[in-house]
Every structure is written in C-alpha cells, then in structure tokens.
Amino acid sequence: MMKATQLAEGVWWVGAIDWNLRDYHGYTLPGTTYNAYLVVGTEKTVLIDTCYPGFEEQVLCRVASVVDPKTIDAIVANHIEVDHSGGLPKMARMLPGVPIYCTEIAVKGLGRHYDTQDWNLQVVKTGDTLALGNKTLTFLEAPMLHWPDSMFTYLAEDEILFPNDAFGQHIASSERFDDELGKDASLSHAQKFFANLIIPLAPKVLKKLDQVGGLGIGISMIAPSHGVIWRSHAGDILQAYTDWSKGVSKEKVTIVYDTMHGSTDRMAQALADGAMDGGLEVKVCLLRDGRYEGCHRSDIVTEMLDSKAILIGSPTLEDEVLPTVAGFLSYLRGLSPGLLAQKKIGFAFGSHGGHGGAVKQIGESMQKAGIEVLGDGYEVTFRPDADEREACYRAGLALAERVRSL
C-alpha cells in the first residue's frame, strides 16, 4: 500500500520512515528516514542504497508501486553503515547474483557486517559509470564523508546527486522535499546534522566541494540518505556546507554550564548580561543531562556551530569538572571544532568550595578541541559576591568587544 515519490522521470524515492527513533550517534532527533532511490532506465533498473534492518518491507512496497522488485538489475551501496546497508542481505537473497556496486573499502566492510560470500560485489572508482540505457550513473569516491567507504552517485541526465549522508538531516515527516518542509526548517535540521556528524570532516568537505565544482556538472537536485530532498534549495545547502566548514559564524556566544547550588548559574547569567549588553546574540544552555529544552549536548553544539565564542562553566566536584560538563567536553573534543577554518574563541568559568580546578580542566579541554581559550578563565570561591558578579558582567562586555572585532 506504500507508494513511491517521484523525483524526476524514471527516478523515485523508495525509502523508509522511522517515526520512533529519538537517539542516534549520540544526539536527539525527531525520528528519521532511510532514503533509498530507484532509477528506472530503458535498459536497467537500479536501487541506490537500502535501509536499516527491519525496514525492508517499506522499501520493497514502495519499489513494488513502480516496478516488480525482482526486476531490479543492480544495487548501488554508497555507504556500508547499517542504516543504509541493512537491507542488502534480504535484497541479495531475493536477487541472487545481482551486482552490488561499491568502493573497494566497502567490500571489506560489508564482509565484516554480513555473510557476503555469495554476493556479487563490483568495485567502482571515481569516474566509473553505469549505463542504464537512457540514463547514466557516475560514481565519485568520498572517503571519510563520513566513513572510509563512502561515495557519491550522480545521475547525469537529471542532474541529481545522491551523496548518501552528506547534506542529510535526521527528521521523520510526511514531506519529501525541502520546499514542502520549508527552507528554514530544512536548513535547521541540516545544521544539527552537520554539527553533530560532519564538523571533524570539515577540511575534507571543502576539498570534496571543490572537486565536485571542478567537474563542471550541474546539480539541480540533491537526494541525501536521510531527511528531505533538496529540489528547490540545492544551492543553499551547498553554500551552507561551505560556510559551516569554513567556520563562518554570527556575532553570537553560546554559554554552556551546570551548577550545584546556583553559584555557577549566577556567573553564567552575569556573563550573558554583559555579552548581550555588548551587542551579541546569546544562547544560554543549562546542561542537566539534556532535561531542558534545547540543552541536550547535540542541541548545544548546533548552537555553537554558528557562534564565534563558547563559554563553558562548572563547579569543582571532588577536584574534577561536574560529570554533566565532563561528558559534554568529551563530546566536544571528539567533534574537534578547531578543524573548522575559522577558529572559535572560548572562556572557562566556575565556582568551588575548596581549592578548585574545574576551570583549568575546562580550559585544557577546549584547547584540545582546537578552541582559542582567552586567559585563565574566572573562578570564585563559593557564591559570587556583588563584585565578582560585576567582574563576570565586565568579562561578558570584553568578550563582546573581542567577538565584534573578529
């Protein structure tokens, strides 16, 4: 009963919608889609990517609304991660001997995930093509975007790029296209996807975008492996990826902290007041294990992506950073925002009831993440008094002046 969605003549979305997924790759999401595509040529029919295990029937039902699934002549595996390759075992059983086109590294990876002894795996390299009659698929290796095996597939006649995880978004919706969901909503979900998955790959993104641009090909539509398809704003998402990879930011600061008895909270509020009065856009995030709307670590790094400055605060607990803040710092170090072309500046703050130490540890963690840390931070004993709150306010003003000079 499930129907495919047409992208162009002979090109269909035949993916699956996962309405219930709420946590993936360490961040929160409102469900997702596992996008698979069917390209029907005059001589061959090709399935591009599959789905997460358990969603094969959705894909097959949508394929069946266009053609008999058993008439599929070939499968393209752009990426071996199980949310895209999980349907391959069932497809390989249903279509014995069907050629599965993938990179050389993907052959090894698929063999680690599945029993591929009877699979007809065909290695392709950049520039290789697959003729379907009136349509032609061209393959472009894209290692580390975002796994070593990744590749893009380009449909020349319709100028459609199938880039797997690049340019995707995690969202479950009835809308299949960016203009249906809305440009702002589509870009917002794409920003969260980039912030939580793509930041460490930013230098490679820029090189790949240059490589694609150097091919001189038209891109009228971008059909990623998750979320909506970019048919009206393909240029906007390409520009957004360029800007995000370069670290293009607003005059904005994101303040991240947790507090035990309210002391660090008072410091955060004073810093925020100073930054706001200094003309900055300010986002304040109380961690608390993500229990507050928009303050899960995945939401915070999304805010940080277009911020020029990051302030992180914590009280000292048993000579260490508070566990919620420590977990966030670990996540931040893994993302390595210092790999963005334009570095972000940072500032550490906090309180203690003994000899402290959390502020120094925060500064060291930010440096490891590639953030330029300003000074030694600011640490107070117990609850900040009026003078110390004034010092925080002044620090916020000084930060605003520094940000506006960048």
In a nutshell, what does this entry contain?
Pfam families: Flavodoxin_1 (PF00258), ODP (PF19583). The protein is an alpha/beta fold. It has helices spanning 56-64, 82-85, 88-94, 104-113, 178-181, 183-198, 202-214, 234-246, 263-277, 297-305, 323-335, 358-368, 386-405; strands at residues 5-8, 11-13, 16-18, 23-24, 27-28, 32-34, 37-40, 45-48, 74-76, 99-102, 120-123, 129-131, 136-141, 151-155, 160-162, 221-222, 250-257, 281-286, 307-313, 316-317, 320-321, 345-352, 372-373, 378-381.
Molecular structure report:
- InterPro entries: Flavodoxin/NO_synth, Flavodoxin_CS, Flavoprotein-like_sf, Metallo-B-lactamas, ODP_dom, RibonucZ/Hydroxyglut_hydro, Rubredoxin-O_OxRdtase.
- GO terms for molecular function: electron transfer activity; FMN binding; metal ion binding; oxidoreductase activity.
- It comes from Methanofollis liminatans DSM 4140.
- Pfam families: Flavodoxin_1, ODP.
- This is Flavodoxin/nitric oxide synthase.
- By secondary structure, the protein is an alpha/beta fold.
- It has two domains: 242 residues, Metallo-beta-lactamase, Chain A (4-Layer Sandwich), CATH 3.60.15.10; 156 residues, 3-Layer(aba) Sandwich (Rossmann fold), CATH 3.40.50.360.
- It contains 13 helices and 24 strands.
- The chain has a seven-stranded mixed β-sheet with strand order 1-2-7-8-9-10-11.
- Strand 14 and strand 15 form a beta hairpin.
- Helix 7 packs across helix 8, helix 9 packs across helix 13 and helix 11 runs parallel beside helix 12.
- The chain is elongated, with a radius of gyration of 24 Å.
- The N and C termini lie far apart (56 Å).
- The mean pLDDT is 95.
